[in-house]
Amino acid sequence: MSALKRFDQTGVPLLLARLVLGGMFIYMGWAKIFDPVDFLKLIREYRMFPDGGFFLLNLTAVVLPWIEVLCGVLLILGVGLRGSALLLLVMLVGFTIVVAVRAIGIYQAQDIAFCAIKFDCGCGAGEQNICLKLPENVGLSLLALMVLVSRSQRFCLRRELAGLRTGTASS
């Protein structure tokens, strides 16, 4: 058995990835839940929806933060890991693309250094420097990928619940 596989089976890498990723998404989602109008204005700036697509825009502003919080809670609890990680990975890839495209647009329009670009990307943490935000999103994507491919079930509530259902849990 390879050292990497043995390290994964300890459950520690998965636990750390779950806690960091889950904590970040709970924090970021919660910030958006309490100010949906501001979040709506921020996502409107990305122009991802067609003109007149107010229903989709409003639906996104209301539902997306709750999905982020739910996935974060599930990751921390260790339930539905692969589904939550996959959903967060898809969202992170999408977020990263639209943030990068917006930053490139600002760069071209304002003719300033790329790393000097700062704007509120809508992540829930306020104004962000683009040269910090993009690597942060890549790092979070790697954590989501790590949760997705890990085969460890240690420190997962799902494992405990499965043991209780089958009667194999130790007292």
Short description:
By secondary structure, this protein is mainly α.
Reading the helices and strands in chain order gives: HHHHHEEHH
Radius of gyration: 19 Å
Domains (count)? 1
Outline the low-pLDDT stretches. 167-171
Count of helical segments?
Answer: 7
Strand content: under 5%
Q: Major sheet: order of its strands?
A: 1-2
- Overall 3D form: globular
Q: How many individual β-strands?
A: 2
Helix content: over 70%
Report the major sheet: 2 strands, antiparallel
| Content-based structural category | mainly alpha
Mean of residue pLDDT values: 83
N/C terminus separation: 31 Å
Could you list some keywords that capture this structure?
171 residues; mainly alpha; disordered C terminus
Walk me through this protein's architecture.
By secondary structure, the chain is mostly helical. The chain has one domain (8-155). It is built from seven helices and two strands; from the N terminus they run H-H-H-H-H-E-E-H-H. It has helices at residues 3-9, 12-33, 36-44, 54-77, 81-110, 130-149, 157-166, and strands at 118-120, 127-129. A two-stranded antiparallel sheet has the order 1-2. Helix 3 packs across helix 4. It is globular. The model is unreliable at 167-171 (pLDDT under 50).
